[in-house]
């Protein structure tokens, strides 16, 4: 499966150049000619939306993609998961202009493992706080939220790395942070397998590679932190066999606004639309998740997944995403002019057997043990990933004997909960490194409301 991407992405890249879409330093969000868009059921309004969303995406990911750095390292073929392949210091870059004084940032490339265990190159970032008396910095591994599914959508290409409410807060608190782009983002040896367990491998092996890059600067112990897609990754990682032994150095994790069981959440959203219990914002937000979900399943089940619930119009627009190499805003923007009846063949049909199979193979909270504590945080006003979904997975995991704490932040949405809960998750991280007891039972609390 790891090699599946090569020929397909090469074809798309070649097609893009042939259509005049390529810029020598641009790797995402290409302008698609009108006739190509129209042939993929994207009319004038659709094209206008995508053009507007492309501006937002390119403002985030930039147009100065370092193709040389993100190319697969020459020493990759002899490497094993956890090996360091490339290390590049970032200096005098606008991306780090807002970094706290004394912080140094590096891009790196390392070897991870695909879902089938095959080695795969991955890129990412390492941020080091100022050294204190030559002491080691405690290490946090950050798993990012959805940025897109194509190579130009990698977080390590952000035009402003420190304009972020996530991992930069951990750096400001004195932690070293390693950020995996996830396989398929940045480096394109393989495709990004959205929401799969492959990302848990990427986080684990990013830690090993970062520790090899800076053996005297980084602690052998580490904590994972993830938001949105990355929150689900952190939950997957907490149950990963690789971190159940104390020798891994893993101390615990924080899962913020985590998607857990894809099929269950998808079916719940459809049922809410059927029963007219969804708001317009909830419906539109749900529809924007259709392209990345469809692409992820197509890649996970290559040649087998035909998106049985979707109309041909939507399937054609999903193909357009690959031609334009659309990142987060434009990818979701493909759905913004559509209604549920435009998207689904039959709103009463929620049966997608391969989506259910994907959930069974990749979702956490299905009985695997987690030896270290997990903090789950969710906003009550989250309409992208429902708080009820993390509650169901929390209850299931506790039922299997794992020890978790779940905090609900009243009135916080999918994005704001990351910043507004930072005092709690930074304290959780500090407590893990201090060896403080997490307790022996699952607990829940509410911030801004009555106790559960």
UniProtKB/TrEMBL annotation:
GO terms for molecular function: triacylglycerol lipase activity. It comes from the Eukaryota. Residues 1-24 form the signal peptide. Gene3D superfamilies: alpha/beta hydrolase (3.40.50.1820). GO terms for biological process: lipid catabolic process. Keywords: Signal. Belongs to the AB hydrolase superfamily. Lipase family. This is Serine aminopeptidase S33 domain-containing protein.
């Amino acid at each position: 499966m790891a090699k599946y991407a090569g020929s397909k992405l090469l074809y798309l890249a070649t097609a893009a150049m042939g259509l005049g879409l390529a810029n020598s330093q641009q790797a995402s969000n290409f302008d698609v000619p009108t006739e190509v868009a129209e042939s993929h059921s994207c009319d004038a309004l659709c094209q206008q939306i995508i053009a507007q969303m492309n501006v937002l995406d390119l403002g985030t990911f930039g147009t100065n993609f370092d193709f040389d750095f993100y190319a697969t390292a020459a020493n990759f073929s002899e490497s094993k998961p956890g090996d360091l392949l490339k290390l590049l210091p970032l200096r005098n870059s606008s991306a780090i202009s807002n970094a706290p004084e004394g912080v140094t940032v590096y891009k790196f490339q390392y070897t991870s493992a695909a879902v089938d265990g095959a080695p795969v190159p991955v890129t990412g970032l390492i941020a080091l706080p100022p050294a204190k008396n030559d002491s080691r910095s405690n290490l946090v591994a950050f798993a990012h939220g959805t940025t897109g599914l194509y190579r130009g959508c990698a977080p390590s290409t952000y035009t402003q790395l420190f304009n972020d409410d996530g991992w930069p807060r951990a750096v400001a608190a004195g932690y070293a942070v390693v950020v995996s782009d996830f396989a398929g983002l940045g480096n394109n040896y393989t495709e990004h397998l959205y929401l799969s367990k492959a990302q848990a491998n990427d986080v684990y092996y990013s830690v090993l590679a970062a520790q090899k890059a800076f053996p005297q600067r980084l602690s052998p112990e580490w904590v994972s932190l993830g938001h949105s897609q990355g929150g689900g990754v952190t939950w997957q990682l907490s149950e990963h066999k690789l971190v159940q032994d104390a020798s891994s150095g893993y101390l615990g994790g924080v899962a913020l606004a985590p998607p857990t069981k894809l099929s269950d959440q998808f079916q719940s959203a459809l049922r809410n639309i059927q029963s007219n219990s969804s708001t317009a914002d909830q419906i539109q937000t749900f529809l924007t998740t259709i392209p990345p979900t469809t692409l992820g399943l197509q890649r996970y089940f290559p040649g087998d997944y035909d998106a049985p619930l979707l109309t041909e119009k939507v399937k054609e627009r999903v193909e357009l995403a690959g031609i334009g190499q659309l990142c987060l805003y434009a990818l979701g923007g493909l759905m913004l002019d559509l209604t549920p009846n435009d998207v689904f063949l039959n709103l009463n049909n929620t049966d997608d057997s391969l989506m259910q199979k994907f959930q069974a193979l990749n979702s956490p909270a299905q009985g695997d043990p987690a030896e270290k504590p997990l903090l789950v945080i969710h906003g009550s006003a989250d309409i992208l990933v429902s708080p009820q979904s993390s509650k169901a997975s929390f209850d299931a995991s506790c039922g299997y004997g794992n020890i978790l704490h779940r905090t609900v932040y009243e009135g916080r949405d999918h994005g704001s909960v990351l910043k507004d809960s930072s005092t709690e998750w930074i304290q959780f991280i500090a407590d893990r490194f201090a060896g403080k007891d997490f307790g022996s039972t699952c607990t829940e609390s509410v911030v801004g409301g009555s106790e559960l």
